[in-house]
Amino acid sequence: MKAFRINVSRCNGCYNCQIACKDEHCSNDWTPYAKPQPEWQVFWGKLEDHIRGSVGPGLPEDPVIRMSSHVKVDYVFVPCQHCVDAPCVEECPVDAIYTRSDGLVIIDPIKCTGCQRCLIECPYGKIYMNNALNIAQKCTGCAHLIDRGWPIDIPRCADNCPHEAILFGDESELDLTGTETLHPEFGVTTRVHYLDLPKRFIAGTVYDPVTKEVVEGANCILSGDGTGTETTDGFGDFWFDKIAEGTFTVTITSGGKSATVSNISTVEKDINLGDVALT
Amino acid sequence: MKEDKDKKERGEVSRRDFLVGAGAVVVGGAIGAGITYPLVSGDGEVVTTTSVKTVPTTVTTTKTVGDGAAVTVTDTVTTTVGAGETVTKTVPTTVTTTVGEGVQPWQEPETTVLKKHCSDGRTVACIDVKNDKIVRIRPLHWDMHYTEAELKPIAGARAITAQGGKTFDMPPKSLMSHYFATYKKRVYSPNRILYPLKRVDWEPGGVNVNPQNRGRSKYKRISWDEATTTIANEIDRITAKYTPWAILCSMDIHGEPKTIHGGINGHSCGMRLLRLYNDGYTQQQRNPDSWEGWYWGAKHFWGDGWIGQCKQVGPLYSDILKNTEMVILQGHDPETQVCGYFGEFPSLCYFWFQEAGVKLVHICPDLNYSAACHCGAPSSTYNGKWIPPLPNTDGALNLAIAYTMITEGWYDQEYLDTHAVGFDASTMPAGSDPTENFKDYVLGTYDNIPKTPAWAAPICGITEWTIKALAKQWHLKRTSTAHREGGPMRGPYSHENARLEAYIMGMQAPHNSPRWEKNFSARSAQFSGGFAFAGWAGAEDPQMRQHIAKNMVHVAILNGTMENPVSWMGTTLLMAPVEDQFQRYYYPIPAEEGGSEIHMWWTDAPCLTTCWNGGFTYVEAFRAPQIEFILGQHIWLENDMLYADIIIPVNTKVEEEDIQGYGDEFAYGLFLYEGQAIPPVGESKSDMQGVAEIADKLGVKSEFMDGRLTVAEWVQYGFNNSGAQDLITLDEIKQKGYITSPAADDWQQDKAGLIDFYNDPDSDPIGLPSGKLEYYSERLKEHFPNDKERNPTAKWVVGGPESEGWYHDESLYGERCKEYPILTVCNHPRWRFHAQFDDVPWFREIDQARIMGYDGYMYESIWIHPETAAEKGIEYGDIVKMHNERGIVLGGAYVTERVRPGVARQDHGARLDPINDWATDESQRIDRGGANNMICPVRVSSPNATGMVTGGYLVEIEKLEPNELEQWRKTYPDAFARDYDPAYGPLFTGWIDEGGE
To answer: Has the ipTM of the complex gone over 0.95?
Structure first.
C-alpha cells in the first residue's frame, strides 16, 4: 500500500508541490489515469497557508511602538487523501472511481459522466469539475509515473519537494510515528499522514516595567484546557505551542515577581499576549 | 468497497507487464542528444549505457529483441542481442520497456535534457520532452548517471557535523527553485514575442519617429529581413549623423544564463557587435542595484570585497553549523532573494541551522518568507524571533544597540583600539576633529541626543526592552549577520543603514562575522563555459569613456546636453574599487573626447520601468524627442518593450543548445551540456543568432562570430576550454548531460572572512588608507566635507524638506509625511524573479501574490496590517491606490498580521499595465499592474552616493472607489480595451495592430 507522509514543520512554503502538480497535469494528457488539469484556479494538490498569531499591540503611551510580535506561517499540503474507505468510490453512480491495489484512488476520465456527485461526497473538497471536458478530476498520486517507473517513480509533489516534507512510499516502510489524519472529524481513514499539523499557540514576552528589560529565565506555567511549562529565553519570549482550542491561564514567576493572564481563549485563533509585565 | 477491476480493462499496467517489441529506440536521440526514456536495446546494435542506479531489488524482465530471441535482462547483465553481438549493460531498475505496437501516449518515450536555472540563477533541472514539447521540469537526481564515489563531492562540504553533534548532508537531488519549476509557462507564455515587430507609426530615418506615441501605439509584424536591414541602416545612419557614442546599450542582468548564445545572462551581444563594428557605444553601467547601502556605505568601513559586503569565503553553511549561535537577518529573506539564484538550498540551510540550535532573528517590517517558516516556538523545530521595525529605521535601531553595548561594556574595546579608526576619540586620525568619533555620537556627548533604546523606540517602533535584549544577545552569542539584497540597503540613505550595522559587527568582532549568502559551497576546481561571448566593459575599458550610470539614464537623457551635462559620483560598476566613488562622471562627455548625446537606444534587458528608480520618468526618457530609434531585443512583450520601435524576438534557454560551467551547486561544481530541448518558438532566435543577423547586414558576421559560424563549433570550442575536457569526452557529456568537479585541492586553506585581519591587522590590512576598520572615514570627510547625509561617521539621517537643504524627505519626520504617511516595503519578489514570471498562472493564483479585484483583474497584492486597513477604510480584497506626487500604482488589499502597521508592502517588479503614463501632472499617472518602481524616488541614495531608492519611501494608500475606476475607464478606454486574461495578465495580442498582421 502506498501512502504519503507530510511533515508540516519541514515545509518552507515554496509551493514547489502545488506547482509540480500543475506542471505534470496541465497540458499533459495521462489517459487512462487522468486528462489534463485546468491551468487556473484548480488545485489537485493545494498548499494551504495558516497564518498564525499577531503583531504585538501598541504601547498605550505610543502605539507606534509595538510590543513583541509572535507570528508564524504553517503550510499544509493537501492532495487527494486517497481514502481507504473513500466516499467518492462508494457513491459514484457509474463506478468510474476505483481504488487500485496500491491504494491510490483514480477517477476514470473515460467513464466519468460529469454528474458531480463525487464533488459533493468528498469531505476534503479535493475533487474538481473540469467544465470544458465535463468530467470530475483529482489528484492521481501520479499513478502513471509510478506504473511506468520512469523517469521517476513517486508523485511529482514528493519529487519536487526540496525538504522531504512530502514523502511517498510503502505505508509499512514510512515512519508514521506521531502522525495524524487531517480533519479526523470527517470520519474517513486516509493514506496521507501528517506530522506537526498546526494546533494553537499562546506566546508572549515577559518584561520588567521598572527596569525596562526583558526577563530571561522566567518560569511560565500553562493551565486550563492544557498544561505546560516554559522558560523565557534571552528575548523574554515564551511559546506554548501545539495546544488545543480552549481556555487557558498563564502564570509567570521570576525573582519574587509574577504575572497572571487568565481567560485566554484559543478557540478562534492563536494568541499573542504581547509583552507581559512582571510586578 | 469497490472490487479491484481487471487491470487491462482499466488501463492500469505495472512496469513488469511491459513487453519489449522488436526493434526500437537506442539511448540518445532527440534534437540535442539527451537521455531517452525508456532505455532499450536496438535491433542488432551494441548498446552500452552507463546509467547506474542503486538497485534495491533485482528486476528480471523478459524481452524480445531483434530476431525474436528471448533475452533476460537483469541489473547488470550480459545480453546477446541480434546477430550474436555481446552487450554489457547496467539497466536502471525502472527502465525496461520500449515502444511497440499498441503503446498508449502515456507510455511514449521522453527525452531528458539538462538546463541550468532558466532566468538568472544556479541549480540544474531535468527538462523532459516528447514530440518537441516540454512535458515537465523536475530536479536532477545526482545519481542519474554517477555513483556516490564518482560524484566526487567536496570533502568537508558533505556530512558536516555541527556543534551539538548532529550531522547534515547534501540532499540527493538538485534543489530547484519554485521559479524554475514553472518555467514551462514562460516558454509557452502567451506573451512570447513570436516574430519581429515594428511600431505602426515609427519609420526609420529620424523623421517620422513619433516618440510621443511610444507605449501607446501598437505593433505590426515584420520579417527578420526587414528588421535586420532597418536596424543595420539605422546604426549606420545614426553613427554617421552623430558618432558611435550616440547609441546607448542597456544590456545587463538578469537574463537567462547562457554561454554560447549571449554574454552575461544572454545580454550584451549588441555591445560585442558595436565594439567591433563601430569601435564603441555608450554603455549603461549597471549599479549594485540590490546592495546599494553596502557599496556606498560599508565599503568605507571595511574596504572592498564583492559589492561592499566584505571578504567572503565559503563554505558558509558548514562554518555556521560549526561555530555560530545566532544569525541575524536584517531585511534579508533567503527564502526569496537567494532562491532565485541558488534554488531551495539556502532554505534547507536554515532548517539545518534551526536543528543545530542556531537562534534566528528576523528584523524586517514584514514577516517575510523566511521569518514565516524559520521562526516560531523553540519547543518545536523552530527557534526564531521576528522584530518588525518601521521601514528604513534600521539605522536608529542599530544606534540604540550600539549605545547599549557601549554603556554596558558589551563589546571589545581592545580589539577596536588595535583594529579600528575613529571608534572613539583615541583612535581618530591625526588632524581630524576628535569630536567626530562614533562613540561620542552614540552617547550624545556633543549633540545632546544619546541614542538610547528609549530614543530609538518611537523611531523604529520596537520596545526599549527588546532593543536591549537584542544588544545583549548579539554580544553573548557568536553571531553571523546574513544578507544578500534588498531591505534597508535600498532605501534613502541606505549607506548609513549599512555602515551602522557593520559598525556593530566590528564591535563584536571577536565572535562575529558578516556573511553574504553567495558562497555556500567550498571552492571547487571550477569549470567555466570556456569563454565569454560578450560582456560588460570594465571601468578601465576605453568603451567606458562615455557611460551612464544605470540610475541616471533617465535624468541623463532628459536633461543632459553638450552645453549642460549631468553628472554623478562613481561609475557604479559593481567591482569598482572604493576610490572610484570619489570620481565625478559626466554625460555627455565633451565632443572632442568622443562624446555625444544619445539618439539610439538598444535594450536587451527591458525592465527600467518596473525595476529601477522612477519608472514614469523612464517612460518620459523613452519618449524623449532626440531618441530616433529604440531597438528592443527580448523574449516576452513586457515592460520596457512597450516603448520600443523595433523588437526582435529571442529564445528561451530550452530552445537553444548550450554549455554551462559553474561552481556553486552546493557541494558540486558542475559542467553541463545543455541539449536543445525544443525547436524555437515562433521566429525567435537566440541573442547571439539574432544579433548575428544584424552583423550580417553590416558585413561583419564572421568577425562577430569569431569565425565559428555554427553552434556546434562553439560547443566544441567552449568545451575544449572549460576544464571539463580533461575529465570526459564531448560525446559522453552529451549523453549524460552533467559532470561534477572535485573540490580544489587546497579549499580547506580558504580563510573565513576577515580572520587574518582579526589575528593580525598588519598581515591582511583592510583595503582602506588606514588599513583598519574605519568608523570615521577620512576620505569621505576630504571628498565631501559638506555632505550632511553621508557623513564621515555614519549617522541617523532623517532628511527633510528640500527648502531646508535635504535631498530626501521620505521619513516620518519631514513635511511630505503629512500627506503621505505610509512607508513602503518593496521587496525582491517571492512570486517573480524581479520582472520575470509575472505572467505565470501558477503564481498569479496564489493570494499573497495577486488578489482578484471586483472587476476581475488580478491586482498585485499590497500587504496591510488590520489596524492600518481599518484606519483607511480598506478591507481584504479591495482595490487600493498607492500613490505620491510621482503617480498612482494599484494593488489588491491583502490584510494580514504579516506586516506591522504603518506600512504598505508590495513586491517590486510587477509587469507594467499603464492606464496613463503621459500626464504632465505626474501625480495623475497611473499603473494598473502594480509596478511600484514607477513611483519610487528618481533621486539616488544621497547627493554623492549614486544608489537607487526603491523601498522605504512615502506613499498614501486609499481604497479605489468604483466610481473613480469607472471614470478612468471612460477617460482611458484604450488601456481598458487591451486584451487581458486574469491567468496571464495583459496579453501580447493587446499590443498588436490587427490590421498589420
So the answer is: yes
